[in-house]
């Protein structure tokens, strides 16, 4: 029998009907008091194994507080899977599978790869062979095309219905005319800035002073529209609703970051520097988020506010295998800013640590102050914002420390669950997921079906083959991703928003809701 969500996370109250009123504050959510009010006593998650199953189990699609497994896919034992949360508007999902260099005695450039697509029900649509030089990954969808990248900084457009190639371009050749140099070049980020795709070509063996290259190609033809050299960039690019591109080149040793923004046509808008490693993380409504530390004016790069989480100790989050920033934060200017981080130390921050070591923060998108916070488990995926205003989050049980091996591989000591929260941090449901492998890919959502990738042998002692299982789970309520409020307002991963909000979403934004 799978235990319910409150046994896992120690919540004291719940909301069974997300459409109804939400009374009270859950024990693992701390609301920041109004000016002059008293700060409530810190709430410590319950650890008593006798805590009964939660009422929220009724809001889960499976029995006994579980999420119903709709379908799953496991590749052959000698193949690696690269899934980046890629889904089109009809709910078809895409990933690539390649021979494992560990099990196949071939030059890495000769490893056989395939592009795979399945329907929303998990039925295979096609399995299309991809040409050498291997290491292919499917990134994003634009109209009836999807875009994949391979070794030597190759970019290819494919028909989403058949997987057939429409065009291909070597961005390695755009950066360096010497073919011998192309083996060190990778496309580290690929974002949509209609009518272009903007790619970041990174030199993985670059010496001191080496440069990366921003390259824009036409999405319909692959023709190069513009290119700009930039210092080495190690974080995904961010794009706003007008197609402006934002990036940050960080020098970890010097603790300096060169921030920049270019127009959709490749004209420099501004360039500035910051102390520390503070690459752009999200943009919406003229506000740009830098890491977990600062809000700036997207038009000028000038500082607007310091986030309360800037006081948190900096460390690396593995929030999904993706060159898109999709899912690292949910940002809607004037409405909400939600991101995971360690325990911060300013006003409204948590006063008590917990085994998971991580908190989900709701911050004021104008002042950066903490509105609410709640404990989440180790290695959470960042929140996905839905059309009905809920936040989807995948994490581990709050009460369970991972330790060195406790959270890795299919035989991990603890499992994961899919948590649904209101924009104020109140829990709507928390449903156990099948298996104990860590779900670490960006989530894809279509009509209430969430598709996730789990690494089933994610352990330093394994054979280094990334054996990823792809699993689809159902919510109880059909839902879609929100059309706005994403880290890239112009679109990052396939479902990360639209260039402009349309329909009801546009009316809601216009009305200030």
From TrEMBL:
Signal peptide from the UniProt entry: none
Pfam families xref list: PQQ_2
Every Pyrrolo-quinoline quinone repeat domain range: 213-377
InterPro entries (alphabetical): PQQ_b-propeller_rpt, PQQ_rpt_dom, Quinoprotein_ADH-like_sf, WD40/YVTN_repeat-like_dom_sf
Region (Disordered): 19-56, 479-513
Biased composition annotated in UniProt, kind: Low complexity: 503-513
Name under which the protein is recorded: Pyrrolo-quinoline quinone repeat domain-containing protein
Annotated source species: Corallococcus macrosporus DSM 14697
């Amino acid at each position: 029998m799978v235990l319910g969500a409150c046994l896992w996370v120690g919540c004291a109250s719940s909301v069974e009907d997300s459409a109804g009123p939400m009374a009270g504050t859950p024990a693992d959510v701390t609301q920041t008091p109004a000016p002059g009010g008293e700060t409530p006593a810190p709430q410590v998650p319950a650890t008593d194994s006798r805590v009964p199953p939660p009422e929220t189990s009724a809001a889960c699609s499976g029995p006994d507080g579980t999420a119903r497994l709709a379908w799953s896919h496991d590749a052959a034992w000698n193949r690696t899977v690269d899934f980046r949360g890629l889904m089109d508007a009809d709910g078809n999902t895409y990933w690539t599978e390649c021979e494992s260099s560990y099990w196949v005695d071939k030059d890495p450039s000769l490893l056989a790869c395939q592009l795979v697509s399945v329907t929303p029900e998990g039925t295979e649509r096609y399995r299309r062979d991809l040409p050498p030089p291997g290491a292919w990954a499917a990134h994003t969808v634009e109209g009836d095309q999807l875009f994949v990248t391979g070794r030597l900084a190759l970019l290819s457009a494919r028909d989403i219905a058949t997987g057939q190639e429409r065009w291909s371009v070597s961005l390695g050749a755009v950066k360096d005319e010497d073919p011998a140099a192309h083996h060190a070049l990778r496309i580290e980020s690929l974002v949509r800035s209609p009518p272009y795709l903007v790619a970041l070509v990174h030199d993985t063996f670059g010496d001191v002073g080496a440069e990366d290259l921003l390259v824009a190609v036409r999405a319909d033809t692959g023709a190069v529209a513009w290119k700009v050299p930039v210092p080495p960039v190690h974080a995904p690019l961010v794009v706003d609703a007008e197609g402006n591109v934002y990036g940050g080149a960080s020098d970890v040793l010097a603790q300096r970051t060169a921030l920049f923004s270019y127009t959709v046509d490749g004209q420099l808008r501004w360039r500035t520097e910051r102390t520390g490693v503070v690459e752009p993380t999200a943009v919406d409504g003229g506000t740009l988020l830098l890491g977990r530390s600062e809000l700036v004016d997207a038009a000028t790069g000038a500082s607007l506010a310091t986030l309360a989480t800037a006081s948190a100790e900096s460390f690396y989050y593995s929030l999904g295998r993706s060159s898109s920033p999709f899912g690292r934060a949910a940002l809607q200017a004037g409405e909400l800013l939600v991101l995971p981080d360690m325990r911060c130390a300013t006003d409204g921050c948590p006063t008590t640590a917990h085994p998971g070591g991580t908190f989900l923060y709701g911050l004021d998108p104008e002042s950066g102050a903490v509105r609410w916070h709640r404990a989440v488990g180790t290695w959470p995926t960042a929140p996905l914002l839905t059309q009905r205003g809920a936040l989807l989050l995948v994490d581990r049980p709050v009460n369970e420390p991972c330790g060195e091996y406790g959270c890795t591989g299919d035989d991990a000591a603890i499992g994961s669950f899919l948590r649904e929260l209101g924009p104020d941090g109140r829990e709507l449901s928390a449903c156990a997921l099948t298996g104990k492998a860590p779900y670490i890919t960006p989530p894809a959502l279509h009509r209430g079906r969430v598709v996730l990738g789990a690494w089933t042998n994610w352990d330093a002692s394994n054979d280094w083959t990334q054996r990823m299982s792809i699993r689809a789970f159902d919510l109880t309520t059909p839902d879609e991703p929100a059309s706005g409020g994403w880290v890239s307002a112009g679109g990052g991963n396939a479902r990360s928003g639209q260039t402009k909000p349309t329909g009801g979403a546009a009316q809601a934004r216009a009305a200030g809701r």
